[in-house]
């Protein structure tokens, strides 16, 4: 944690008053489960909090930045900015992937590079920062890390994976694309959904995510990888 604390101070001017919050934010459930006797806290609750403040601040930014955009257009843009893949990228940009505590099994299976884990980590860090420093500190951090990339306009050009898949499959005519939830597990505040996508009844791929929409996007992404 000392190296992480140094990085946060040097790069972002952030010094946590309560170091236990930072420790918890960077502790994955797999690590906590492997050390149950130590009663270690993991980051799922902080992730829940971070997701909420992230949605709020990005919504506020888009509302003020684009006074002429319709609600639907702002919602689509927000979903591109805060999608799992984007948040995982921000975690990597900040070097967070080097500091998360994973269980041995999760580490061996490549969890340190998994978008789901790194996206959750970014949100957990925001939750910890909110509790330790307040919403203004979270806003300042996002202005350093996320907003510069949004300002380039790159997210406005991004099509979601479901749209890309639909366009690819329908080049030769209408195709019935169906997304079906095949499994869901986990507590109410941290559910994981598994979704299967079919085209005219043929199974193309499956995906996972913390919501049905995210799982559908992941399934479409995996289908595109198979088809292109």
Describe the structure.
The chain has about 230 residues and is mainly alpha-helical. The model has no long low-confidence stretch (mean pLDDT about 90). The protein has helices at about 1-10, 20-25, 30-35, 45-65, 70-80, 85-95, 105-110, 115-135, 135-145, 145-150, 160-170, 210-225, and strands at about 175-185, 190-200, 200-210. It has twelve helices and three strands. The protein folds into two domains: about 1-155, Ribonuclease III domain (Ribonuclease iii, N-terminal Endonuclease Domain, Chain A, Orthogonal Bundle); about 160-225, 2-Layer Sandwich (Double Stranded RNA Binding Domain), CATH 3.30.160. A hairpin with a 2-residue loop joins strand 2 (about 190-200) and strand 3. Helix 2 (about 20-25) packs antiparallel against helix 8 (about 115-135). A three-stranded antiparallel beta sheet has the order 1-2-3. About 60% of the residues lie in helices and about 10% in strands. The protein starts with a helix and ends with a helix.
Please give the alpha-carbon distance between the first and last residues. Answer: 42 Å
Amount of beta strand: 5-15%
Assign the CATH topology of the largest domain: Ribonuclease iii, N-terminal Endonuclease Domain, Chain A
Q: Main sheet? A: 3 strands, antiparallel
- Structurally, the number of domains stands at 2
Unreliably modeled segments: none
Percent helix: 55-70%
What is the radius of gyration computed over CA atoms, rounded to a whole number of angstroms?
Answer: 19 Å
What is the count of helical runs?
Answer: 12
């Amino acid at each position: 944690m000392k190296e992480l604390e140094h990085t946060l101070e040097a790069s972002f001017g952030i010094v946590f008053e309560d170091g236990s919050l930072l420790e918890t934010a960077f502790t994955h459930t797999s690590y906590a489960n492997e050390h149950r006797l130590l009663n270690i806290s993991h980051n799922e609750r902080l992730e829940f909090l971070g997701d909420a403040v992230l949605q709020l601040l990005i919504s506020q930014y888009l509302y003020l930045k684009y006074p002429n955009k319709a609600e639907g257009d702002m919602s689509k843009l927000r979903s591109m900015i805060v999608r799992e893949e984007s948040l995982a990228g921000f975690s990597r940009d900040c070097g967070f992937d080097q500091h998360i505590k994973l269980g041995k099994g999760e580490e061996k299976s490549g969890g340190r590079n998994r978008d789901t884990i790194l996206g959750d980590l970014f949100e957990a860090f925001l939750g910890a920062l909110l509790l330790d420093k307040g919403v203004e500190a979270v806003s300042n951090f996002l202005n350093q890390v996320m907003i510069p990339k949004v300002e380039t306009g790159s997210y406005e050009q991004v099509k979601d994976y479901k749209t890309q898949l639909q366009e690819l499959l329908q080049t030769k005519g209408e195709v019935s694309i169906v997304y079906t939830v095949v499994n869901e597990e986990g507590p109410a505040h941290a559910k994981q959904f598994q979704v299967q996508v079919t085209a005219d009844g043929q199974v193309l791929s499956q995906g996972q995510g913390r919501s049905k929409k995210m799982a559908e996007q992941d399934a479409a992404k995996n289908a595109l990888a198979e088809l292109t």
